[in-house]
TrEMBL record, chains A, B:
<keyword id="KW-0804">Transcription</keyword>
<dbReference type="InterPro" id="IPR009057">
    <property type="entry name" value="Homeodomain-like_sf"/>
</dbReference>
<keyword id="KW-0812">Transmembrane</keyword>
<feature type="DNA-binding region" description="H-T-H motif">
    <location>
        <begin position="39"/>
        <end position="58"/>
    </location>
</feature>
<feature type="transmembrane region" description="Helical">
    <location>
        <begin position="21"/>
        <end position="44"/>
    </location>
</feature>
<dbReference type="InterPro" id="IPR001647">
    <property type="entry name" value="HTH_TetR"/>
</dbReference>
<keyword id="KW-0238">DNA-binding</keyword>
<dbReference type="InterPro" id="IPR023772">
    <property type="entry name" value="DNA-bd_HTH_TetR-type_CS"/>
</dbReference>
<dbReference type="GO" id="GO:0000976">
    <property type="term" value="F:transcription cis-regulatory region binding"/>
</dbReference>
<dbReference type="InterPro" id="IPR050109">
    <property type="entry name" value="HTH-type_TetR-like_transc_reg"/>
</dbReference>
<keyword id="KW-0472">Membrane</keyword>
<protein>
    <submittedName>
        <fullName>TetR/AcrR family transcriptional regulator</fullName>
    </submittedName>
</protein>
<dbReference type="GO" id="GO:0003700">
    <property type="term" value="F:DNA-binding transcription factor activity"/>
</dbReference>
<keyword id="KW-0805">Transcription regulation</keyword>
<dbReference type="Pfam" id="PF00440">
    <property type="entry name" value="TetR_N"/>
</dbReference>
<keyword id="KW-1133">Transmembrane helix</keyword>
<feature type="domain" description="HTH tetR-type">
    <location>
        <begin position="16"/>
        <end position="76"/>
    </location>
</feature>
DNA sequence: TTTCATACATATCGATTAGTATGTAAATTT
DNA sequence: AAATTTACATACTAATCGATATGTATGAAA
């Protein structure tokens, strides 16, 4: 009651708000019931509006899905950029990095993106657009981040490759969520990932004369 | 014409044959159009029969899906047991093992199982049964295989844990298929996986007094 | 304050879904 | 070979999908 939204809102505010509520509802549904289960009726119900409102803001369901891709990608970028994984001394510990990546790319919210990628695979029109969107995101988000976190004189290609592998492993781990694994299972495998990568990076550093 | 099937077949033969054709068609569709896209009409069409025949052999679609789980699990076990990954001298090379696991668990056919796991996630009745089926399979297939390939006096728990991690990574890698990555991408990451694990296992062996 | 555009709701559409009812042909039993 | 069961096909049903058509309420412009 104290922070009740002003009763009289401008049109653009209402639109933006409703659009975000719809996108948020779609994201939730994508990772709870999957792409096929995320129907327009369910999205509208979850958003507290009708399908009429949904189709007013997103003329087609595909359009809404791209809204989800845009929003989720942006949120993931923000969370990736939040560099709370750096310890106070500025040193990057592998175990912290793994935890950070897990929090970002192991998050159920991120899975919504993959639901769209996988769910549209046989759609000749939609899938190529989804894949392109994905490539763009990786290029504008991940690569700059990588260049900022690896020095020029590193064995950078190797390190970048290992980083890509880390994301792959984390994605594979997130699949296990669907098998109702407990938290210890995830922590154990994250620890293994950190150990494997840490050991490898040490070796790479030893062979790198610039150090 | 030479090996044309005998025109007059027994009922059980006809049944078994049609059931297998249906299951095969379902598996193909599961990894090409996904769980939701695998409709009874499509399955029947692909199998060259009608939906009437489908429902005669599998009274419900769920039943057919469990037929898929049974068959695919069995096939994966056979392929896992085919120990062509052992080099002639009997020594197990990590890179060969990784390739072997990739051929089995990175195969599109195997993804059909995961389509069912993920696709049924919000089905309160079906999903628990699917998860149970999965656990049974892992227990009766993977664990015996692991015990056969690790010696008692090894640091077995560590090795088993690393093995589980390998499967997770391979699963994550197989997801990238949906992004139209080229073959080099997969090979590069399989090589990284083999390097990481190989290096780790060497360290474990050094600390193991039994060697 | 009147006019108009925007933001929604309601009602309904054709298409598609899993499943059923019923018919016919093939195989087995008697 | 007649009777019966099994293996399918055809036709249909209720439910649900994304989408549209049309109405009403709300905010912006005049």
């Amino acid at each position: 009651m104290s922070v009740a939204p002003s009763r009289r809102r401008t049109q653009v505010d209402r639109s933006a708000e409703t659009r975000m509520i719809l996108i948020g509802a779609a994201i939730e549904l994508l990772h709870t019931v999957g792409f096929a289960g995320t129907t327009t009726a369910l999205i509208a119900k979850r958003a507290g509006v009708t399908t009429g409102a949904l189709h007013h803001h997103f003329s087609t369901k595909d359009e809404l899905m791209f809204g989800v891709l845009d929003h989720a990608s942006e949120r993931m970028r923000d969370r990736l950029e939040a560099e709370e994984h750096l310890s106070p001394d500025g040193v990057l510990h592998i175990s912290d990095l793994v935890q950070h990546l897990w929090q970002v790319y192991g998050d159920p919210e991120y899975w919504a993106i993959w639901e769209i990628i996988i769910g549209t695979r046989s759609d000749g029109v939609l899938h190529p657009r989804v894949v392109t969107h994905r490539l763009d995101t990786m290029r504008t988000v991940l690569h700059p981040w990588l260049e900022r976190h690896t020095s020029e004189n590193d064995a950078r290609p190797d390190i970048v490759a290992i980083f890509e592998f880390m994301l792959i492993a984390i994605r594979g781990l997130s699949l296990e969520r669907f098998l109702d694994k407990d938290e210890a299972y995830f922590e154990r495998n994250l620890k293994i990932l950190a150990e494997l990568v840490g050991q490898r990076l040490e070796t790479l550093a030893q062979h790198d004369f610039s150090r």
